[in-house]
Specification:
The protein is mainly α. The chain has 15 helices and four strands.
Length: 445
Amino acid sequence: MTDLSSFGQDPWWVIGLKAVLIFVVLVFLTLFNIWWERKVVARMQHRIGPNVNGPFGLLQSLADGVKLALKEDIIPKAADKVVFVLAPVLTVIPAFVTFSVIPFGPEVRIPFTDVVTPLQLTDMPVAVLFVMAIASIGIYGIVLGGWSSGSTYSLLGGLRSSAQMISYEVSMGLALVTVFLYAGSVSTSEIVAAQEDIWFGIVLLPSFVIYVVSMVGEVNRAPFDLPEAEGELVGGFHTEYSSLKFALFFLAEYVNMATVSAIATTLFLGGWRAPFGLGTLYPGFNEGYWPVLWFFGKVLFFIFVFIWLRGTLPRMRYDQFMNLGWKVLIPAALAWTVAVAVIRMITLEGGLDRQWIIIGGAVLAVVFLALFFLGGDEEPDEDPTRSEPRRLPDAGGVSRGTPGEGGRFPTPPMPRTGAVRGAAKPLVFPDRDRAPAGTSADKES
């Protein structure tokens, strides 16, 4: 049974304080992540990055936000004004709400008071399902924003977002099912408590890999940023947005990055527990406010992975993106879920040791990665019984398009010079030393 007795007992001012702190932390974390991304990518590309506003350029994100808020707010004439205004709000609010069930640490005493409260706004028996449901609502803001703009490019970006949500949320949900099987709960605080001995990211390594790939596709980040591919769709679903409404889309993207990173930290990396066995060496590292440091350190590690991928990998084609989701991630997640269910049932009956589970999971992870990285799209061999393409003679009687000389397909003959009615004829001057009539040389003579 899930023990959630420590939640719902806080005074109203403690609940309000927690809500305000979550909002403020996420806003400042977004400003820091934007600065950090620009700095890391600049270092990868041998540039300096922001270094003017504030120490080390730390205030550059704030300056950009103020500049963006002061820009002119334009609403296209063909847009559905009500939906156009509500779409950014519908995207950014769920991004903040999902953090309400994320545990930042254990129970602590609030300074200068006698109140003891967990470092978590609330929890529920289906907390992870709540996070996925609320995160799905944010996608509707992107779809409606693209539809309401009255632009073809924005509409295509919104449609891509809906297809992307369906494709990668399925694999993400299947990756989380194995965590529920091992933890015996869907509550975030209980899942963290179940990782006291060993992290689920080690025991369930294939699920961890599938979730990490799916979370990059879920938040529209490179190389999976197809809904806002500037080379194809100008700016994607937010092409027609400006000023504060565009800033809300931008804010929602970075808060969603922090959300999926916090979920990965909670479900696979022990949550707020100290890494590398530090909690075993000194139990105080898992008490008080130390766990907040470990939690945000793990979250920033995933943020760095997002930045690293953006700075190194090119954008995928849309068909490759869909094939990865439906033909690789979902079948692998299904097979791994069935395997974990069988192993879990055998373990509960006392027939299998945990070390064999870890070894089996590592072997399956290696096989999965080998199939993922080594499986190339090789061209099939030509069928020797296949008839040669029909040869077309050109004007000079020479056959073109043979497999050995001209490729796999025949080449049509080129028309002779002047054979086409109305074709331009070359200019011929009787005297090369004399310029054409009407030129400056003729006028001078």
